[in-house]
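Thread: 2-acetamido-2-deoxy-beta-D-glucopyranose complex, take 2
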Amino acid sequence: MVVTIKSISIFLFFLGLIFQGYCKPCSLGDLSVKKSKTGVKIQGKPEWLVTVTNNCHCGQSQVILNCRGYKTVEPVDPNILTYSGTDYCLINYGKPIYKQPVTFKYAWDEAFSMSPNSSQMAC
Ligand SMILES: *[C@@H]1O[C@H](CO)[C@@H](O)[C@H](O)[C@H]1NC(C)=O
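Output below.
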């Protein structure tokens, strides 16, 4: 009997650990934005590949990046990136980003520093 109670409490302890880990809310810091040069030139401007990764187990929707001054000579699918015209870029048309990274390419003289500005957790 004592043994059973002990093993149940050990089981519950580990269940609690797993649950705690699973329920940990996501944060903006779980989004990473990486850029690299593709080596291709478009209208004489270098092309940049941007990868937006969500490192949380929950989806994140309404992902907005800071992208002040964003310009491109290569058209980017608005379903992937919509520029507000001022400071922001909406990623994935607001649809949640899960484990599968979202990528897009643009071409301009310099790479813009894009960092996450806000998102909504879809846990
Ligand atoms: C989001 O954008 C606003 C306006 O540019 C800025 O003041 C704020 O610091 C940004 N937040 C983050 C987390 O980058």
